[in-house]
Amino acid sequence: MDFNSLAIKVASRCNLNCSYCFMYNLGDTTYKKQPKFMSYETVDHIIEKAKNHIKKYNKKEFSFLFHGGEPLLAPKEFYIDFINKVKKIQNELNDVFFSFDLQTNGVLLDESWIQLFKELNISPSVSVDGTKKAHDMFRVDHKGNGSYDTVFKSIGLLIKKMTFADIACVINIKETPKEIYESFKEMNVSYVNFLIPDYTHDNFPFNSKEGLMGDWLIKLFDIWVNDAQRYKIPLFIGLLNTLMRVNENTKNESTVLIIETNGEIEAIDSLKACGHGFTKTGLNIKEDSFQDIEKTSLGKLYFNDFNSKLCKQCLECPLKEVCKGGRLVHRYSKENGFNNPSIYCNDLIKLIAHIQKFFISCYPDLNKKENIEEISPDEIINYLTSIHENSESIYKKELELFSEINMRSAS
């Protein structure tokens, strides 16, 4: 079982009420049965199980991501206790590097929190959706008030005290890429992880054939790549490295395991968007090991078949080694489970083709030597559409035949 990171759900509640949040507003209400904060007893179980896992699989690196809800709702003593306990097991383990990250909405971030991060060597990331307009469109408090002004001040304080600011930004295509990009330049941030919104085939609010997200990302890429003072955007760096056949030692979503506030062991919580209770495994850190999740149906798919069990359309796609089928949550439908292409399939094809074209233009000699064929997004989309239509036609004929046989049997 190849995972090396735990997302620790420190708090199960949040002081914001973001409308797109998979934790609270996409149909899963299991958080209501969770304790508001993780107990110290649960922490003890986590540390012990992490130590056992590291020993068993001879891990040299292991990371803890403090998450929520909003993790800054928990007391500072929680983090001091947690990291002190990790330091104790670190003395028992040879040559193991531990890292600590924290994802916050930034509303409660102040000098005392930043000082604690520095003392405990915690790397914070703040959720900001770009401009005030884009951010306050979705990231509101429980009274419906926007949070941008408070978070903007927090980012400034973070840069002043820690000299850097890492950002997680859920893409809002209602705001222009230029305005979003420039807003982060004004903040003087060092890193922006642009996140494609988490929807499934059942609740996707756009027409997937139009490729609006792809068009938006292409414009953002052009702005970014032509900026000599650009900040890091891992989405683009990752695709460029893949196209250049550069091996990356990066985490994907299937290398992260979730521990809820009551100790429940789950797969990545974006899958909560698939429906109420979808991520529940019945496992708990108190009685079960991390490896036990492989025995569950979701765990088998998530950790063993994440990139191998692709739908027919993906398997036939020449870009499958680049996009790897997209994120798991984006493939889901109640009708077919994960046996679907990503809802962002056309977007990914357009974006990958555009980035490849840029890459070829940068290295014309290499292109001649390697005889790299330029990707035609329209050809690929049309080809995959025909595969999908043929599959649908065959499926309908099988259903008709099955119904006819049943009717004959009944008569």
Task: Explain this structure.
This protein has 411 residues and is α/β, with parallel strands linked by helices. It has a domain at 5-272: Aldolase class I (TIM Barrel). Helices cover 43% and strands 10% of the residues. The protein has 14 helices and eight strands. Strands 6-5-4-3-2-1-7-8 form an eight-stranded mixed sheet, with helices on one face. Helix 7 (212-225) runs parallel beside helix 12 (345-362) and helix 12 packs antiparallel against helix 14.
How far apart the termini lie comes to 52 Å
Q: What spatial order of strands do you see in the largest sheet?
A: 6-5-4-3-2-1-7-8
CATH fold node name of the domain at 5-272: TIM Barrel
Average pLDDT for all residues: 87
Measured on Cα atoms, how large is the radius of gyration? 23 Å
**What is the CATH class designation of the domain at 5-272?**
Alpha Beta
In terms of DSSP E residues, the strand content is: 5-15%
Order of helices and strands: EHEHEHEHHEHEHHEEHHHHHH
How are the elements arranged and paired?
Layout: E1 5-9, H1 40-57, E2 61-67, H2 76-92, E3 97-104, H3 111-120, E4 122-127, H4 132-138, H5 148-162, E5 166-170, H6 177-187, E6 191-195, H7 212-225, H8 234-243, E7 256-259, E8 265-266, H9 297-304, H10 312-315, H11 320-323, H12 345-362, H13 364-370, H14 377-410
Parallel strand pairs: 1-2, 1-7, 2-3, 3-4, 4-5, 5-6
Antiparallel strand pairs: 7-8
Q: What structural keywords apply?
A:
411 residues, alpha/beta, TIM Barrel
Give a nutshell description of this structure.
The chain is α/β, with parallel strands linked by helices and 411 residues long.
